[in-house]
Amino acid sequence: MFPSRIWREMPQRYRLEAAVCKKCGKRYYPPRLVCAECGGRQFDTYVLPEEGKLLTFTVIRTPASQFSDLAPYAMGIIKFDDGLQMMGQIADCDIDKLKIGQKMRLEFRKIQTDDTHGVLSYAYKFIPKWY
Amino acid sequence: MRDVAVVGIGIMKWGELWRKSFRDIFTEAALNALDDAGLDKIDSLIVGCMSGGLFVGQEHVGAILADYIGQKNIPAARVESACASGGLAFRQAYIEVASGMSDIVMAGGVEKMTDVSGDGATYALATAADQDYEVFHGVTFPGLYAMMARAYMKKYKTTRKQLSAVPVKAHKNGSMNPFAQYPFPIKLEDVANGVKVADPLHILDCSPITDGAAAAILTTVDIAKKMKKPYVRITGTGMATDTIALPQRESLTWLKSTELAGKRALKMAGRKITDMDMVEVHDCFSIAEIIVTESLGIFKKGEGAKAAARGVTALDGKIPVNPSGGLKSKGHPVGATGIGQVVEIVKQLRGDAENGRQIKGNPKVGMTQNMGGSGASAVVHILEVA
Question: What share of chain A is helix, strand, coil (3-state, %, to 5)?
Fold first, then answer.
């Protein structure tokens, strides 16, 4: 993955920046340039809460090559209190004990190492809250 | 708009075709379609192909295939909508004939998936998801549908057995399809005992990686009548899209694009879903067929899995779903899948389905539903007897 591709996503991946439409209040993660609800083009930036609830999850057993060292690993979709949803890996967990509805905390983690350029890329992972 | 008919269909034996190249498999299907229609010349070619670039390093697919099927110099284009590319090619060919731009158009589909490793195919398929906000984190296609399956099974208290009924039915039908990749029956316990791919999905919940191609020849109903060949009318086409990223959907247990594409096609055809004598749907995973049959309105929310387990969708059931064997048994060469569905419905409507696979009682109306990604694109067609 070319470094610029990782670099330009830093605001949302590192700082959890989301967008809220100035006109209708619809929230977006990742941020967009135009609101899919009202067509508004002006947004305020806000920072996502660091806690959400697990809506669904799976355990990836046959991943793409850059994740093969990690398999099997859990992935899920969490929902924040403000209604936004996002997908990510679930780390530091017993994959047999995950449950829909569990509280998850977001932590800053390394996601992958690029095969050809060796560039490290970071973002959030979900950690079950009891840990 | 002019009334449009299918006057020829062509398919070939799908599978892991080590001896055959990308261009060869498409040519085989295209020639079968031309022979079926009794034609040697077409006005235009539209081919669905998801990722010639990643699977065989070949873009510029329209030109190379037009030449190799013996139709050099005609207008030819490749269209892409992930795994719905074939359905999209059929729709674009329909529009081209209906509009009066061309009289005879081939809608083709092709994918050569085994010239890369399993890793490579997993990577190529994952490009149909949100690259920066899903795939970046390590999700795979089975993973996306597994998340839908988990949410669905919890919401509707679905059992492993109910889910397994879908691939078991697919393989039973596919065992009668001479063009299927895996033409053999499987048992309920085979599904549950298979290796896990992405929990709760096991290997037999998933459609395979396939080399394959299919083609259909479209023309106007007026020209079809003069050709004195059996033809099938296309009475409805519908397409819809949704957010590409699964977490951004309103529901994880519903496919809005399929609902809308289905409604649009039915409205155009002046039909109700209950008019369908059979449907070919996009069962890329067992859970996909279940949610699709609900989103199309065949079953109520939460009833799809139970209906499959009761045999309602079997060949002799109330509404046969995937008489061809579906993506599961017939194979899923992504770009070709949508045209493969059309081939099956045309066969059923002509009374030509092989090996006891023919639905009894002279079916008159059928539907195809082809889907891209985790459901961000859906293309639906209604086909009817002449």
Answer: 10, 40, 50
Secondary element (H or E) of residue B215: strand B212-220
Position B317, amino acid: G
Contacts of A62 in chain B (CB under 8 A): 118, 122, 140, 142, 197-198
Active site residue B83: yes
CATH class of A3-128: mainly beta
CA distances (Å), origin B123, targets A70, A112, B55, B139, B374: 16, 14, 10, 10, 15
- Residue A127: alpha-carbon gap to chain centroid: 12
Is A60 within 8 Å of B246 when comparing Cβ atoms? Answer: no
Render pLDDT for B321-360 as a digit per residue (tens, 0 to 9).
999 999 999 999 999 999 999 999 999 999 999 999 999 9
Task: Tell me the per-residue pLDDT of A48-62, one tens digit each, with 9 for 90 and over.
Answer: 998 999 999 999 999
Q: Could you tell me the residue ranges of all domains in chain A?
A: 3-128
**DSSP code for B211:** B
Q: Which residues of A touch B151 (CB under 8 A)?
A: 55-56, 100
Q: Any catalytic annotation for residue B202?
A: no
pLDDT, tens digit, 9 for 90 and up, residues A13-57: 999 999 999 999 999 999 999 999 999 999 999 999 989 999 999
Residue of A nearest to B248 (CA): A85
- Residue in B137, B148, B150 closest to A87 by CB: B137
Domains, chain B, ordered by start = 4-117+210-232 (3.40.47.10), 128-206+235-385 (3.40.47.10)
Q: Which of A62, A75, A76 sits opposite B197 (nearest CB)?
A: A62
- Which chain A residue has the Cα nearest residue B250? A85
B200 contacts in chain A (CB < 8 Å): 58
Tell if the CB–CB gap between B134 and A87 is shorter than 8 Å.
Answer: yes
